[in-house]
Design brief:
Elements (H helix, E strand, L loop, with lengths): L1 H24 L2 H6 L8 H5 L8 E4 L7 H5 L17 E5 L2 E11 L2 E9 L2 H8 L1
Antiparallel strand pairs: 1-2, 2-3, 3-4
Amino acid sequence: MAGEDDGADEWADAMNEQAEAEAQAAEMETLLEEGVPKDVDNERLDVILDIPVSLSMEVGRTQIPIRNLLQLTQGSVVELDRLAGEPLDVMVNGTMIAHGEVVVVNEKYGIRLTDVMSPAERIQKLK
């Protein structure tokens, strides 16, 4: 159990370090310029900040007939529509918001965001 706690601590340290760097880089004025109107009441915005969302990473996709699906067994290989080394799609509630690459921290997978869509681009994709 102590080994698991050490791994969790190192993972948490890595995530905190990244969050601190991002917090220093992004000031409120910059965020307001990127698509959030300046007249938005921060107290009203705080209401939605604790709403949970589903974050997922997509390696690739494919379509296969049910016949082939039923023939899959342990060790079967399913070809996806992506090349090795291509960035993964980062999805929030099924909407792509970024691209990233897989990283491993203490034997746990994570994702490093390499390209994040601007708020304006995300809103455009919703329309």
